[in-house]
Amino acid sequence: MIESPAVLIVNTASRRGREDFDRARESLTGLGVDLRAAHAVEDPSTLPSVVKDAIDAGARTIVLGGGDGTVSSVAPYLCETGVVLGLLPTGTANDLARTLGLPTDLIKACENVAQGKVVDVDLGVVGDDKFLNVSSIGLAVGVTKQLNPKLKKRLGALAYPVATIKAYRRFQTFSARLEFPDGDHDDVELDDLLQLAVANGRFYGGGAVVAPNAGIDDHLLDVYAIPRGTPWQRWQVARHFVSGVFTESDHVYHVTTRNVRVSTEPGQAINVDGELSARTPEVFGIVEGGLRVVVPVDASVGVADVGARQRARSH
Fold first, then answer.
1. In this protein, which residues make up the domain named DAGKc (predicted)?
2. In this structure, is residue 69 part of a structural domain?
3. What is the rounded CA–CA span in Å between residue 18 and residue 41?
4. CATH assignment at residue 50
5. Do 64 and 80 meet the contact criterion of CB atoms below 8 Å apart?
């Protein structure tokens, strides 16, 4: 059960906008959720301040309507506060919703907020930023630049492959050095890379799987790097990209860790959950169980034996 009082905050710039806000408020009230206030936010840049003000005013649950970018923009203000996040996925990709096993239907998502269970999940950290899904370097940055709001509204989830094709045509490879402060892996130099990613969650990019066993509650980051390779190797990676099986290829570098320092040549922008807010060199880490979220009662998120999972993933 969520904690009261709750505050509803909806990013009305996310696709269905004001209609989602009105339906969510009506549904949550009908389900008996104790809403202290409800805010329809038209300017996404003000979302962090709206959330912060709600917490300062005593909210114990933030019911947030929006996409992955909306959640990522406010996650730092929820991290390690004990305030519960109830997510209403109204964005384009909704990768965090997939990771948490949330329904994407608005009314069913409201029912989950009212009737679900509260669990702890991890947040990734890069510099001063926190992320829930993934931070990427390389091709994903180009995709983000191509993925404008008009394209997302017009094509929905199809905007991601369209933006990827556009970005690939202009892309230049890069080299990277990965250093592991905990000594759990040897430092490594990687050349001619298309993409390097550090992932906290399981899904990203509109439904692609980070790795077959990746989870948002295992206290581990998944790090993978994809070299340009031959056309055949690129085809093999692309063919298995959505399932995450590509990380098992000999062509792809993949490890799990808690901390990694990444430097690149030339310097690269870092896509942090869809926002270009950092640059290499940078250190990536994790906040274990730093965010409380509402998930379905039968969800496996947040109930795993973390120790057993980490041992299994290290083999």
1. 1-130
2. yes
3. 9
4. 3.40.50.10330
5. no
219: left (phi over 0), alpha (psi -120 to 50) or beta: left
Helices (H) and strands (E) in the chain, counts: 10, 17
CA distance linking residue 217 with residue 66, whole number of Å = 22
| 80-119 confidence digits (pLDDT tens) | 999 999 999 998 788 899 999 999 999 999 999 999 999 9
Res. 26: pLDDT tops 80? yes
Decide if 258 contacts 219 (C-beta within 8 A): yes
Asked if 107 and 144 sit in the same domain, the reply is no
In Å, what is the CA distance from 87 to each residue of 81, 111, 213, 230, 282? 17, 11, 23, 41, 30
Please provide the DSSP assignment of 136-185 as one string.
Answer: EEEHHHHHHHH--HHHHHHHGGGHHHHHHHHHHHT---EEEEEE-TTSSS
Name the domain count of the chain: 2
Q: Could you report the per-residue pLDDT of 139-188, keeping only the tens digit for each?
A: 877 777 766 666 666 666 677 667 666 766 777 899 999 999 999 999 99
Quick check: is 275 catalytic?
yes
Out of 179, 275, 282, 288, pick the active-site residue. Answer: 275
Distance CA 70, CA 65 (A): 8
